[in-house]
Specification:
It is a single chain. This protein has four helices and no strands. The two termini are 24 Å apart. The radius of gyration is 15 Å and the shape is elongated. The chain has helices at residues 2-27, 32-51, 57-83, 89-120. The longest helix has 32 residues, at 89-120. It is mainly α. Helices cover 87% and strands 0% of the residues.
């Protein structure tokens, strides 16, 4: 089921982001970019969770649209961390791949929901 898939994947991604944040703080002494990454990277799953209790289809789409924006922002912070040598290319590629997958799944759910909404209207 797509709701459970995205819920699980976004949670697992958030765990990875928190672990990276802890590493960047303790080992690299980087506090600003990592905090931004943690905020956006964990927000994806939080908004996916909120969407599960949406009051309407419009609310569901809205919550997932926020998750989509947070996923895109997370990609930005990851790229910036890579380009400034805080994370390796390998670390970047692994996290970027997961973030991009989340983004694609969220976009797909939004489009499917909008299309279903249009058919029933």
């Amino acid at each position: 089921m797509s709701g459970n898939l995205i819920k699980e994947k976004s949670f697992r991604f958030a765990v990875r982001v928190v672990m990276l944040y802890k590493y960047l703080k303790s080992e690299k002494k980087e506090y600003i970019l990592s905090k931004q990454l943690m905020r956006s990277g964990t927000s994806i799953g939080a908004n996916v969770r909120e969407s599960q209790n949406a009051e309407s289809k419009a609310d569901f789409i809205h919550k997932l649209a926020i998750a989509q924006k947070e996923a895109d922002e997370t990609l930005y912070w990851l790229e910036l961390l890579k380009e400034t040598d805080y994370i390796t290319t390998e670390e970047y590629q692994s996290l970027e791949s997961d973030a991009t997958e989340l983004l694609k799944i969220i976009r797909s759910i939004i489009l499917t929901t909008k299309n279903n909404k249009a058919i029933k209207a």
